[in-house]
Amino acid sequence: MCGIVGVLGHNEVAPILVEALKRLEYRGYDSAGIATVNRGRLDRRRAVGKLVNLSDLLVHEPLAGKAGIGHTRWATHGAATVINAHPHRSGPVAVVHNGIIENFRELRAELAEKGLACETETDTETVALLVRHHMDQGLSPRDAARETLKQLDGAFALLFLFDGEEDLMIAARKGSPLAIGHGQGEMFVGSDAIALAPMTDRITYLEEGDYAFVTRAGVEIFDAAGRRANRDVQKIQLDATRIEKAGYKHFMAKEIAEQPIVLADAIKHYCRGGKINLPEELDFATLDRLTLVACGTASYACMTAKYWFESLAGLNCEVDIASEFRYREPPLPQNSFAIFVSQSGETADTLAALRYARDKVAKIVSVVNVATSSIARESDIALPILAGVEVGVASTKAFTCQLAVLLLLALEAGRQRGRIDDAALAEHLKALASLPGLMNQTLTREPTIAATAAAIAEAQDVLFLGRGAMFPLALEGALKLKEISYIHAEGYASGELKHGPIALIDKAVPVIVLAPRDALFDKTVSNMQEVMARHGKVVLITDAKGADEASYGTWKTLTLPELPALLAPILYALPAQLLAYHAAVAKGTDVDQPRNLAKSVTVE
Ligand code: F6R
Fold first, then answer.
1. Which amino acid residue places its CA nearest to atom 8 of ligand 1?
2. CA 483, CA 500: separation in Å to the nearest integer?
3. Measured on CA atoms in the order 129, 132, 134, 137, is the torsion positive or negative?
4. pTM for this one?
């Protein structure tokens, strides 16, 4: 989850590296560092905490050089201290690393026997020591890196820089992505193309097991077996304006507000002429089963989709979180599709789950935001959600776009399986097309939602309740609140309340009830009454009819536009996001970069 960047440039690289690291800070912000080679000598600067601390340090202790590497860290091995910060250096080599070297303990012991002791708590330092050891034995930087890579187990992306080598970086990918950027007599390396966006749009992605010797003249790539490999140079389209805050206080606020636009884009992309346009190979007609796999917020999108695939298409649907799925060895029927949902497309567990399913099912399908990601590239069919770059660590617009794409898949599956006729499909699509407008209306209620959030910010514990397809949204609402405001929150299926969680209810516990006036409304309201009878402070989120019928006795009622029940999980995501956002703002937490988290979870 750390961010890596490297530049062989014409100009001083320190400011360029810091700028690129800014674009990678979403991957981690426990510490940051850069190393350069200047007049043949390696040197480095590192600082704990956000990138701004490194920038400040560089003002007082500048670092010259036209070749350099940089890193922003999400700590795995060892606390966030300067000594554990990357780049790690040993003798003639500096290295930055994303991922985990799983056999670092064994390597450490072997190195210690050779008199090379580690000074840090990190797994990465062993890599630097190994390269140094091989160079001490007389190997060139290229051969030393090659030998070192053979000794490493785990999933990683690595980038090396060497003393005396102002025109060489060595990059390696095993499990974690790396992009090589091509400039005019300059070369770049980054964890993703976004980091390199202002410098170049010509990108080569390393494939699994590849390593590369990068010089200003170009790149030589080798596969895992050490054979020369040809990898395409792709022209990447990245809209830099979408990576700015555009006047909003936080990226999360901007991304919440963008939802009507990006959702409309996604709907337009998939629906044309009253039809849903999906690749022809997506044939659900006689399929036995669907398996949906993801992590975190994306897994709640999958849980919601299960309700849709079952009710609209009569299709058996299993949902799993990737970290469990990958090790459980679940049997997968051949006549089934496995669908992997991921904003980043780089989540380590989801990618491993995809690889597990490969060859076991008829099709590997992914629903991704980053179209060039590993998950997209390793799928038979990759369906973009078209949410645009999501920077805030808490996923918002990606979640609603994931839901929209999954709903379209479920509707198409229903059509192909003869459960939805053309007229019904047209009705559903018409309703879906009205959703961006309803989202806009919902966003106008932000001041009321913010006032409620300010009251919720006082609480220690919050419960979210929902029934049917609103249950996964209760889980999502709780996740959103805890991750950015640090308030303890749990989501429950309303019907589960009596089976334990009701013991938590007292007058200090706000209970957020997500209840559009649908077929299950009365049942949810009964559960809500049980909460109020125990002095729980209910925040009812419903529509005008629901508010008329059930707002009596609630602490607060938030009213949303009416809409077909099928679409409610998408619209009701907005107040859940806004409650979390404004509670976090009221508490003064770091909304876009909450503690301990990172945007892209590339370690398992
Ligand atoms: C929460 C959040 C995470 C991600 C999860 C999966 O707001 O963003 O729970 O949903 O880490 O990430 P992706 O979708 O990139 O696979």
1. 395
2. 24
3. negative
4. 0.81
How many Cβ atoms are within 10 Å of 277's Cβ, its own excluded? 12
Is residue 562 within 8 Å of residue 571, measured between CB atoms? no
Q: Which residues lie with the beta carbon below 6 Å from any ligand 1 atom?
A: 295-298, 342-344, 347, 350, 394-395, 479, 483, 601
**CA torsion through residues 379, 385, 388, 392, sign:** negative
Task: State how far the Cα of 417 lies from the Cα of 408, in Å rounded to an integer.
Answer: 14
Task: Report CA(65)–ligand 1 centroid distance (Å).
Answer: 37
- Each residue's pLDDT tens digit, 503-536: 999 999 999 999 999 999 999 999 999 999 999 9
Best residue for ligand 1 mutational test, from 255, 601, 602, 604 (most atoms within 8 Å of Cβ): 601
* Number of Cβ within a 10 Å radius of residue 387: 29
Q: 3-class SS at 422? A: helix
Q: Which DSSP string corresponds to 384-403? A: E-------SSS--HHHHHHH
The closest of 193, 295, 263 to 234, measured between CA atoms, is 193
How much is the average pLDDT of 313-317?
Answer: 98
Hey, is 84 helix, strand or coil?
Answer: coil
Q: pLDDT above 70 covers what percent of the chain?
A: 99
Distance 157 CA to ligand 1 centre (A): 20
Give the residue, by CA position, lying nearest to ligand 1 atom 10. Answer: 297
The protein residue whose alpha carbon is closest to atom 16 in ligand 1 is: 342
Give the tokens for residue 170: 């060595």
Q: Is 2 a catalytic residue?
A: yes
Residue 398 CA: nearest ligand 1 atom is: 14
Under the banding of pLDDT at 50, 70 and 90, the label for residue 241 is: very low
Protein residue whose Cα sits closest to atom 3 of ligand 1: 296
> Helix count (H) and strand count (E) of the chain?
20, 26
Tell me the one-letter amino acid at 168.
Answer: L
Ligand 1 center–CA 304 separation, angstroms: 15
Q: How far is the CA of 419 from the centre of ligand 1 (A)?
A: 33
When the pLDDT of each residue in the chain is averaged and rounded to a whole number, the result is: 94
Helix (H), strand (E), coil (C) string for 267-314: HHHHEECCEECCCCCCCCCCCCEEEEEECHHHHHHHHHHHHHHHHHHC
- pLDDT tens digits for 25-74? 878 888 999 999 999 999 999 999 989 999 999 999 999 999 999 999 98
- Cis check: omega of the bond before 331, within 30 degrees of 0: no
